[in-house]
Amino acid sequence: MNTLIQENYPDVKIKSVKSILLSRLHDTDKAWGTHVIRAVKADVYMVVVETDQGQIGYGEVCSYGGPPIIKSWIDWFSRIMVGRSLSEAWRVARPRGVNWAHDGAVAGLDCAFWDILGQITGKTVAVLLGADPKVTEVDAYASGGVNYDWSINPDQLIDEVVGYKNLGYTTSKIRMGTQWAFDGVTPERFIKHMKKLRDAVGPDFRLAVDGNARLSLEEALKVAKGLNDLGFIWFEDAIVITNIDGFKELQKVAPDLTISGGEVMQSLDQYRPYFEQGALQMLHPDAGWMGITEMKAVMEMAATYGISCDPHGWHNGAMAIMHAHIMAGAPLYGQVEVNFAQGPLRDAILADGLPTAKGKLAVPQVPGFGIKLADNLEEKYPYLDFNYHAEIMHPIAEVKPAARNWM
Ligand SMILES: [Mg+2]
Fold first, then answer.
1. Domains of the chain
2. What is the pLDDT of residues 290-341, one digit of tens each?
3. Residue 13 C-alpha to ligand 1 middle, in angstroms?
4. Number of H helices, E strands in the chain
5. What is the pLDDT of residues 154-182, one digit of tens each?
6. pTM of structure
7. Cα gap 343→346, rounded to integer Å
8. How far, in Å, is the centroid of ligand 1 from the Cα of 210?
9. Which residues surround ligand 1, an ion (CB under 5 A)?
10. How crowded is residue 384: how many other Cβ atoms within 10 Å of its Cβ?
């Protein structure tokens, strides 16, 4: 793609590279929490790249690298990139898979460059990535299930997922509730609760569980077997990502359940052992964490192994739109994750809100991504400089540190 720009658009130069950092405190009764974490705010990190010919490209960053640290990388890249051609700037932005802040910054830049390329060529990013121009929407799933507390009201989960079904979504992904050790929850009790969920939504509703790498292999094998028997579609990050043999064991006990994972990886080389050893049957790369260029490489390599990708997207509306373009042009079918725990900021950053309804997400039919930000965002949602979550301590349960694998 760099060659395309160099040959045809050699004069497009980077005029500015900026960041928009936003936060919104969660309403106390709607703050999400799972395992041992309680989110206290929602963050937005947008990279904004302007060219000397008037294009403005956006990239929403997965902010887990820490917004102030990501910004330090963006400011550094800005000093290098401003005044250079788009192709020169693009060449230096590659994820390394070792530093979330650096890779998040690079991802935001790469996405913004694709947005600009779309505007220069008059094509949607989806079409640039190989989508049929007639595709105007992709399948989306409701991602949530991060509000139930085993000691208070576990049935909140049931009501929540029935709510997604009533909104017209056909797939929902949930998590495993507060730390099991707080309440003596076992795989057997969890599966009993999943049976209740299955009965509430009916046999045809597509359900998935994200384990957030919380389980031991012994626990995960029991849960995988139970989910398999209840007709769940996929089981994501059941165990720590390094346990490649463990993922293969999960596949054996749950032949009809897709064993997935890999959201924490940011570069193609990190996925290689999982391809070669057949450890994961579906991957969750995130364009806001690795960029579109790298994600495209991951998806194409995955497709040669028959492995599909459903993007990880636990942030805001701009990220969901980026993923809609990517999935429209993806080599294999996948659904876009739409975050239902982020609160109003998810839609409020977009002038027209997030175009999702009834299990679909629109692919805006304008050159680039078609992301239009709302006005005065920084005045309305000034960035709050502290971590987005707190860890819940418990006086009696012995709690292991939270896995760094969200969400
Ligand atoms: Mg996940």
1. 2-123 (3.30.390.10), 127-373 (3.20.20.120)
2. 999 999 999 999 999 999 999 999 999 999 999 999 999 999 999 999 999 9
3. 37
4. 15, 16
5. 999 999 999 999 999 999 999 999 999 99
6. 0.95
7. 6
8. 5
9. 210, 263
10. 17
